[in-house]
Design a protein that fits this description.
The structure holds two protein chains of two kinds. Chain A is mostly beta strands. Helices cover about 0% and strands about 50% of the residues of chain A. In chain A, strands 2, 4, 5, 6, 9, 10 and 11 form a seven-stranded mixed sheet that branches. Chain A is globular. By secondary structure, chain B is an all-beta fold. Helix content of chain B is about 0%, strand content about 50%. The chains are: A mainly beta, B mainly beta. Chains A and B meet through β4, β5 and β9 of A and β11 of B.
């Protein structure tokens, strides 16, 4: 069965650079969630989209932006990167039929040097 | 507001002995609860989920959890620990009051001693 695909899996950037993370949800899933997991921490909700509209917002820095496109894939854009942005970024998707269960991608590990 | 509290940040057990990882929840709605496991430098793997069906939920790799409304608990158990169970475990509640985003507990690091 198709799963949530995230790309790239690993990314190394320098401070003040920009990064773009991509998420391809399971086919027919209309909702995408982004989470950030810092070293030794639990995942924290960043932002979500439903039917290409932002549906919820968590502790996402103003330097970050995200959107969901017409094919339902989503991109998380991160600018002016800081060392503290180094983390594992997860994307998850869910469908209207089973809103309670979200399926996670394998994550993108971002390292800022 | 919904939240989960994992009562132990670290648990150590000997191989072959039972595992108990504790989680209490707070929810204004009938909750959906999950347990995820994360091995070092890996992604999140769903162990099991409770979504208001049977209160005793069986998951993968011999894990199970019991939903107890009276105690607002959803503890994870396994009869016999294996070395490969050593990992970080997260108790999660779905935010049914809003957009169903997941709210994670702070995690329990399980160590299995030979």
């Amino acid at each position: 069965a198709a799963g949530v695909i995230q790309s790239p899996r690993h990314l190394i950037k320098e401070k003040r650079e920009t990064a773009t993370l991509k998420c391809y949800p399971i086919p027919r899933h209309d909702t995408v969630y982004w989470y950030q997991q810092g070293p030794g921490q639990d995942p924290q909700f960043l932002i979500s989209f439903y039917e290409k509209m932002q549906s919820d917002k968590g502790s996402i820095p103003d330097r970050f932006s995200a959107q969901q496109f017409s094919d339902y894939h989503s991109e998380l854009n991160m600018s002016s990167l800081e060392l503290g942005d180094s983390a594992l970024y997860f994307c998850a998707s869910s469908s209207l039929i089973e809103r309670d269960e979200a399926f996670f991608g394998q994550g993108t590990r971002l390292t800022v040097v | 507001a919904q939240s989960v509290t994992q009562l132990d940040s670290h648990v150590s057990v000997s191989e072959g002995t039972p595992v108990l990882l504790r989680c209490n929840y707070s929810s204004s709605y009938s909750p959906s609860l999950f347990w995820y496991v994360q091995h070092p430098n890996k992604g999140l793997q769903l162990l099991l989920k409770y979504t208001s069906a049977a209160t005793l939920v069986k998951g993968i790799n011999g894990f199970e959890a019991e939903f107890k409304k009276s105690e607002t608990s959803f503890h994870l158990t396994k009869p016999s620990a294996h070395m490969s169970d050593a990992a970080e475990y997260f108790c999660v509640v779905s935010d049914r009051s809003g957009t169903y985003k997941y709210i994670f507990g702070t995690g329990t690091r399980l160590k299995v001693l030979a």
